[in-house]
Write a structure and sequence with these properties.
Layout (H helix, E strand, L loop, with lengths): L7 E6 L2 H11 L4 E7 L4 E8 L2 E7 L18 E5 L2 H10 L8 E2 L6 E6 L5 E6 L1
Parallel strand pairs: 1-4, 5-8
Antiparallel strand pairs: 2-3, 3-4, 6-7, 7-8
GO molecular function: metal ion binding
Pfam families: Glyoxalase
Protein name: Glyoxylase I family protein
């Protein structure tokens, strides 16, 4: 196979400063680089997630993402965590609402969901 790993996931947010605060300070993702593109009146923030990255973009008046009912396309972003209980405690202490923990019937692994400031579903999957 010619594909070796996921390089990055791109997220378009409605409020750059709110989303930057969430991904950097609430989730603790380190900043690789931040660029303001004046011609587009747009920011691009590259965040480190293990060997992968998240590209956080801001654009003028992006349309809302259809989520409920779920639409075609990328469903959610999932992060591996070593302890789902510690992750939930950390998020809850920061005021983030987390869904009840579920168990994947195929793997027996525990997982849960929460949302970013734009309602993008984010999964935590215990490895």
């Amino acid at each position: 196979m010619f594909i070796s790993k996921i390089h990055h996931a791109a997220i378009i947010c409605s409020d750059y400063h709110v989303s930057k605060e969430f991904y950097v300070n609430t989730l603790g993702l380190p900043i690789i680089s931040e660029t303001y593109r004046a011609d587009r009146e747009s920011y691009k923030l590259d965040l480190q997630v293990g060997e992968s990255q998240i590209e956080l973009f801001s654009f003028q008046d992006p349309p809302a993402r259809p989520s409920y009912p779920e639409a075609r396309g990328l469903r959610h972003l999932a992060f591996s965590v070593s302890s789902i209980d510690r992750a939930i405690t950390s998020l809850s202490a920061k005021g983030i609402q987390v869904e009840p923990v579920r168990v994947d019937p195929l793997t027996g692994k525990r997982f849960t969901f929460f949302a970013d400031p734009d309602g993008l579903p984010i999964e935590l999957y215990e490895d």
